[in-house]
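Deviation from plan, reported transparently: zinc ion complex.
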Amino acid sequence: MTAAVPAAEPGTWTLVVADRIHTFAGPPVQALVLLDDRVAAAGDPAELRERFRPDRTIEVDGVVVPGFNDAHAHPSMTAENLLHVNCSPEIATGEDVLVELLRGEAAAVGEGRWVIGSRYDHTKTTGGRVVDRTFLDRAVPDHPVLLTHVAAHWGVLNSAGLAAAGLTRLSADPPGGALGRDGAGELTGVVYEQALFDISYPSLARGRTVVPASTLDDRLRGLARAQQMFHAAGITSMVDALCGPDDVALLAEAARTGQLTLRVSMLVAFPHYDRVAALGLRSGFGDDRLRLLGVKGFVDGACAGGNCLVDEPFEGTDDHGMQTMDDDDLRALVARVAGDGVVLAVHANGDRAIRKLLDAHEAARAQGAPPRRHRIEHCSLIDADIVERIRRLGLVVVPFGSYARFHGDKLVGYYGQARLERLFAHRTLLDAGIAVAGSSDYPCGPYEPLAAITSCAERRALDGTAIGLSQRITVPEALGLYTTGAAYAAGEERSKGTLAPGLLADFVELGRDPFQVPPAEIVDIPVRSTWSGGRLVHELP
Ligand SMILES: [Zn+2]
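Because the crystal trials were delayed, the predicted structure below was used instead.
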């Protein structure tokens, strides 16, 4: 267990020797010297040994790169999900397996308690058909059931779940949300956006959630599992892109008790900004383990869920997607947070949504809001006008790193081939000189950065379909998204992103050199060990 690996005494000099070390701050070397949790020097092992007389030596066989930094994911949500049943397509390989998983969970949770499954993907598990309340009633009749979609913007309830939520055919759609209905107006059990958040997402619910909250001890257990998973993929830092008070409490307790082995920068969900402002907290508050990055807002739905807000309708429909915050509220949020000089990170996927966000930023800037490294989360569908406005405002963009590969199959249907050349437009954005960071949005996409690097360099769906080949980037550029790019996007480039002297000794030992294998094979490189501040947090058995 990583938590049991002790930190060295303060003032300890450590020599790290490897086959090859890519510091991302100069030519490859074979050794680093660390003083406590930071890099002090890089160079030749014999010379560094002579110069620093280290107290201890760590020898690794593989190729070392800076620790991976996921600029947008959901570790506190994952901590909660890992306490329930995982319905990821890799596990729920078909309808029968899904039913078995839900029944197994019902037997495990005890009589009448909620059965909650996450990461359901109808395109992979149920042949493109979204399950409804009657399907879930047949699977589990006597417990309330909530099955959330992999993109976490909609879910499905069974009849007991709808009853527990007090939803009937007479219920109105909540603001910013919707209830799925059949042709006769009956509820299908599908709940979209705010209607889902009120049921199970404390950070965005308008009151107490319908599903009772887990205890802090349970969530700490879930967080430990989540961190193990992330470290095993080489991740040392992550932005938690949606924190409510319970999530801040979870992460703070983990940090206080030495259980937070991941470095986390928090985006507080916009409904809680009043509390942040009242305490006078600003971006950067905290330390190298747990920091406040800023505030998270939303404009539209999900990219891979096919309900983001787009100028041209989704292929073969007249549907332009969903706006989840209206124009006036969006302008007010941007004016207030940006006006306070706090970093604002707003989820905007579709081109129409991004334009609305840019309108709000331009208005705030005209009103005197100071320039900050505000972020557009996802920024999925762009065009030349959007790129130019982002560049002028100096915004940072955080597109999905692995969606071309993982969600490619459904993207062709939603957006059509031509639009895929403007989706997750890494090439265009980097060429425009815009700061770009790598992100998984896990649990909405796979968390492994090496898979994302293959995805960004290849732009192929798992079945080989081309997903906007004009947006391919090089392997060094893709590695940059998950190291230097992510550090810049969180305002942390003075402590993370490279292994230059003075920066944190967060690094990963890989089984092969990513600069020397074909891009398609990077996804299969083993992560042999992961180190945070010179401490081992993961090792391959
Ligand atoms: Zn997210």
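Residues 72, 74, 241, 441 surround zinc ion (CB under 6 Å). We consider this an acceptable substitute for the interim report.
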